[in-house]
Amino acid sequence: MKISRRRFAKTLLLSGTALAAAPRFPGLLPGAEAERSIVVQAVSQRLRRQDHDIPRAAAREFLDRSLQAITGKADPAAAWGTLFARHETVGIKLSCLPGRMLSSSPGLVAAIVSGLEAAGVNSKNIIIWERSSRELEKAGYEISRTGQKTIGSDELPGRGYGSRIAVAGSVGTVFSGIMESIDALISVPVLKDHDLAGVSISMKNMYGAIFNPNKFHANRCDPYVADLCSHPLVRGKLRLAVCDASRVQFHNGPAFFPKYSREFGGLLVSRDPVALDFCGWGIIDALRREAGLPSLAAAGREPSYIRSAAGLGLGRDQESRIQRIIL
Amino acid sequence: MKTKKISLAAPHSRRAFIRNAGRAALAAPLLFSPEASPGAAVPAPQAREAAYYDKLSDKKVVCRLCPHQCQVADLERGSCGVRENRGGTYYTLVYGQPCAVHVDPIEKKPLFHYHPGSQAYSLGTAGCNFNCRFCQNWEISQRRPEQVQSVKLPPAEVVRQARGRNCPLIAHTYSEPVIFYEYMRDCAALGKEKGIPNVMISNGYIQKKPLRELCRLLGAVKIDLKAFTEKFYREQCGGTLKPVLDTLLTLREEKIWFEIVVLLIPGLNDSREEIEKMCRWLARELGDSVPLHFSRFAPTFMLKNIPPTPPATLQQARRIALAAGIKFCYIGNLISDAEHTYCPSCGKLLLRRLMFSVSNEGMQDNRCRSCRTVIPGVFA
Q: How far apart are CA B199 and CA B219, in angstroms?
């Protein structure tokens, strides 16, 4: 079959565009080239909640330092720019189930947005989201449907979920339309114990991106959390995990119980969600020990899905393969 | 779309039979019918305290409705996705809020020995306590209440609507009625009082106590027996077999009319050995009069890589059931002579079916007109 000159030129142009649009950022992991996954842990009085919120300026400062440590860039904007390109649409997935007392802090999220903007990401292309707008509002967020958006999945057509079935290992589901529309994802969980999963941190936060999370809580969510995060929509887009550990629920989660929570003033940042969750689990166990509670493993709630995720190559769960940078 | 109600006294003419069959075939499942629903769309699920649960310490609850017995922490939901713990009190989020409402022939459920030829005002809510990889209604059964468009339809309105549409029956169906237990129970109680029996089309995954309460209110039950191995239930459905068998035994004890459907999926639950074992158990434990339907699988949801069940497999399964002593065995989702009801004594054709249409060929009241054998079931 003969191709006309015009058609040939058009094809060439289209393939060139496709090449230009191809992702230049690796997905979930810091890359096979890295020997160890970096997890930045900051603990500071300045990161403690004031009126249930982390001060934005402190959050931005610690975030910048974290990203500088992770990327090796001296300039904060360049550090953010290493992970996110100007033309990209970035989703920031929050964790807002327990309401204002134990949700991703608005101050921290505002700091993430300003970091993205510093990298040149257009604010119109930033979507702060959760399962529902109602949950966001209860957590202290103002819904915004234009410009830089803050919305629940439920505001999308079809109440947030289409009919395209996604299968990854043991998980069969439908993703939120927001997951389909973004180029890059930042998971912003709260550091908390989970009655069934053991812990709910950056990977478990992805349960809020699917329509049937209730189906995947058996066997301490193992291997479901790992399988879900192995789906290309998550694995290919999740570029950064920022865990709000300003207030930690170390027992009886995921709801807020003051009796079992600690004003920790912490922040965990990593490109490797498995490593971040592994470190978060360690913090929860340490706080449990201080409170005279058994470890999660001793309580029969070891979050074994973290190991399963490492087994799937989603990240690292061995101390020797994790480089902790303490700020 | 209506199917003309059969008269058990007289057979249909061939022309009327074919016309009704055509009409019934057009009555495809309609998951949400605003036309059939009087209420306005519900923006967010309304909560009502659930039945059958226990409160635990630290605001936790344990659900006692189905064999999952989910332990649910504050703000979390059970496996069904429609029952939520709010501060230590357990709520159902689907009471009076179906997302699927339609008028169906009772043959579609299928219930073949219960008011054949009748129309059932049929409804279902979001949610299910299974997650079958082959669910044909997954778009409502696997969703949560806030992810579907529901209508407000309290029990009194359900009964009123059924009566207004000349439906002598109300069917709880489409997703899994067990998970909207309180709604179904109240509809059934009211329906019983008003002379409109309710039927439940279920996977049978329910605890004994709530089931017994329900049996006093329902007219009939259809149970999907998904397979006869724990492996299948565990891997394909997210449940277990034993409680379903217990449900069948309880239904027999309660003396409520019930029928069983088995969807045969190539390579997963259609081996000769499994079907033989199943049929022997059914005949031994439930007797020979419980109708058994073998249904043809069509690729859907997460099982799109498996072909439809070959007709020969269904016919073989039916032969096995008949050989095991089961008197009424049907084949569904496939047009064949195995849709009809025959007299188990003289072999005469009693009820002829095509798709969802039915005509009386040889029954008088509940007997074979020819040899006077009593046919088990409820025949209006």
A: 6
Name the DSSP class of A82.
H
- Structural domain contains residue A20: no
CA dist B153 and B149 (Å) reads: 13
Q: Report domain B31-42+97-337's class.
A: alpha beta
Q: How confident is the model at residue B355 (pLDDT cuts 50, 70, 90)?
A: confident
Does some domain include residue A9?
no
Amino acid at A326: I
**C-beta atoms of A252 and B58 within 8 A:** yes
Give CA–CA dist B150/B157, Å, rounded.
15
For residues B225-244, average pLDDT: 97
Total domains, chain A: 1
What's the one-letter identity of residue A73? K
Interface contact A300, partner B, CB < 8 A: no
Residues of chain A found within 8 Å of residue B302, distances taken between Cβ atoms: 165, 167, 172
Question: Could you read off the pLDDT of B111-148 as tens digits, one per residue?
Answer: 999 999 999 999 999 999 999 999 999 999 999 999 99
Start-end of CATH 3.20.20.70 domains in chain B: 31-42+97-337
Residue B80 in contact with partner chain A when CB distance is under 8 A = yes
Q: What does the alpha-carbon distance between residue B337 and residue B247 come to, in Å, rounded to a whole number?
A: 30
Q: Which domain holds residue A45?
A: 35-326
| B89: contact with A, CB 8 A cutoff | no
Asked if the structure places residue A11 within a domain, the reply is no
Q: Is the peptide bond before A254 cis (omega within 30 degrees of 0)?
A: yes
Which residue ranges in chain A fall short of pLDDT 70?
1-34
CB contact under 8 A, B80 and A214: yes
Residues sharing a CB contact under 8 Å with residue B147, sequence separation 6 or more, in sequence order:
A154, A159, A160, A161, A211, B126
Q: How far apart are CA A30 and CA A94, in angstroms?
A: 22
**CA–CA separation, A97 and A89 (whole Å):** 24
Cα of A199 to nearest chain B Cα, Å = 13
Which of B3, B57, B1, B2 lies closest to B358 in space, CA to CA?
A: B3
Q: Residue B177 is encoded by which pair of tokens?
A: 């009625």
Amino acid letter, residue B201:
I
Judge contact between B328 and B289, C-beta under 8 A: yes
Q: What is the pLDDT of residue B45?
A: 65
Could you tell me the CATH number of the domain that includes residue A197?
A: 3.40.50
Query: Which residue on chain A is closest to B142 by alpha carbon?
Result: A212
Question: Is A107 inside a domain boundary?
Answer: yes
Average pLDDT over chain B reads 90
Q: Are strands B220-224 and B257-264 parallel, antiparallel or unpaired?
A: parallel
Task: Give the span between the Cα atoms of A93 and A127, in whole angstroms.
Answer: 8
